Amino acid sequence: MTPQRLHADSLETYAFQAYLQGALHDGTRSILHGTHRFSQKGTDWLNRLATILTLLGHRSWMYQEGKDRGVFALETSASFLDVEFDPDQFGSQPEQIAYVRGYFDAEGGLPQSPEARFYVQLTQKDRVELEKVKAILETFGIACGKMHVPSVRVDPDYWRFFVRTKSHLAFVSLIGSWHPVKEQILLRKMI
User: Fold this and answer.
1) What span, in angstroms and rounded, lies between the C-alpha atoms of 147 and 162?
2) How far apart are CA 177 and CA 140, in angstroms?
């Protein structure tokens, strides 16, 4: 293997790990079993996560939660995953981009209807964590709105920010998505 290929492989590995660290914000940790678990309706995104874990040399397994719920879980004991991970540790822009992509796939929102006004938002209960994602986006020149609580009455600890309209295309082209549903919505925006 050439040194260039080794370098490319290591960058890809770091980007995949960064993506999974971002996606972990939609996951839970089992201290008892030493595993992390991602849950979703349907299996499309979970299958993508499983593929990434396999490429990184880690095992994962999927199962349905309950007979009638349509909710599935992907569980892994990948040792690099850490719910306390700080994205300020990233040493490269590709890692930052992959992290935000994973975070968006886990915690981001888009309109489901093609007729609805397009928006990109990110939400989270941990304000500090969400501010770090916003700061990463802004370092890439992606303009974001103010961090705010959408409804103090419903949940005073639920934070949100949006990507400004003038930065939608920059977000779509730089960050994008590996979540099958979000990926299709973003592709519609590019057309």
Assistant:
1) 8
2) 16
- The string of DSSP letters for 74-113 reads EEE--TT--TT--GGG--SHHHHHHHHHHHHHHHEE--SS
C-alpha distance from residue 72 to each of 67, 110, 120 (Å): 10, 22, 25
* DSSP secondary structure, 113-147, as one string: STTSPP--EEEES-HHHHHHHHHHHHHTT--B---
Contact 83, 51 (CB under 8 A): no
Q: In this structure, is residue 113 part of a structural domain? A: yes
User: CA-to-CA distance for 18 and 82, rounded, in angstroms?
Assistant: 11
The C-alpha atoms of residue 67 and residue 44 are separated, in whole angstroms, by 18
Domain that holds residue 26: 3-76
99-139 per-position pLDDT tens digit? 999 999 999 999 988 888 999 999 998 899 999 999 999 99
- Tell me the pTM: 0.90
74 forms beta bridges with 38, 62
Query: Do 131 and 57 reside in the same domain of the chain?
Result: no
What residues are paired with 191 via a beta bridge? none
Written as one letter, the residue type at 149 is V
